Amino acid sequence: MPIVGVAVGGMLLTGSASTSRRLGMALLGVSLGSGLLRWQLGRAFAWQPPYELESDDGRLQIRRYAPQIHAETLIDRRTWPNALNEGFERLAAYIAGANSTGGKVAMTSPVLMTVTATNARAMSSNAWRAPRVAALNELTGSGASRRMAFVMPGNLSVDALPLPADHRVLLRGVPRRRVAALCFRGAYSGDLPAEKRNELLFLLKSAGLQAASEVWFAGYDGPSTLPFLRRNEVLVELGE
User: Fold this and answer.
1) What pTM, to 2 d.p., does this model score?
2) Fewer CB atoms inside 10 A, N or C side of the chain?
3) Separation of first and last alpha carbons in the chain
4) CA dist 76 to 123, 133, 172, Å?
5) Lowest-confidence region among 2-6, 42-46, 76-80, 115-119
């Protein structure tokens, strides 16, 4: 729609009537503004997994998520930016048509990746080999350096999803779970996610809560979004 508005606005600007030119200028401004908003706040137009908010003390949120299906991949890369890029490329290829049907799967938000105490280095591991579809509750790849995941749209079951063409991508059922979340803004290409991971674990310890999984980084916006507009989180599963 913004593209159509820009085109129509441009046509009106070429008219001879002043009313037509004013209308064209207004339409052009609205269209460009909405296009910019869509570009910078793309997360508002993507499906996000719903959750029930159990508590929020201003820093730490406790949430309850319904079961989900993840498309996941393991990345053996030493640097955080390289892992982000490689993992995203694999999973984006899957939803773009690199699958058993050649069909597309809608992009959702956020993109998830496990985050370690420091993003400077990651352990090397080539031992992991995953099935194409992992069973519900099955945790695989514990020895890998990092895992990245796309949450599949909530209206699709595992049987309705196409199988990945890339053997490094798997589909995994994630059960209902209780999650602690710490929200933050800023660039996520450096050590900030690792710093927030450590902060999250400190807040958990202070609250007398116990982490029951790896810590995940959740990025709701793409790299083109200005850092101060980005919505980021670090998440960890809690025991009941």
Assistant:
1) 0.75
2) C
3) 46
4) 8, 21, 19
5) 2-6
* CA distance to 211, 219, 230, 231, per residue, from 192 (Å): 20, 12, 13, 13
Q: Is residue 150's pLDDT more than 70?
A: yes
Q: How many CB atoms lie within 10 A of CB 94?
A: 25
Q: How far apart are CA 221 and CA 109, in angstroms?
A: 8
Distance CA(129)–CA(36), nearest Å, equals 42
Going across the sheet that includes 133-134, the strands are 51-56, 60-65, 177-184, 232-238, 211-219, 111-114, 146-151, 68-75, 169-174, 133-134
Q: What is the DSSP string of 196-222?
A: HHHHHHHHHHHTT--EEEEEEEEE-S-
Tell me the average pLDDT across 201-207. Answer: 95
Residue among 146, 148, 144 nearest 172 (CA):
148
Please say if the pLDDT value at position 65 is more than 90: yes
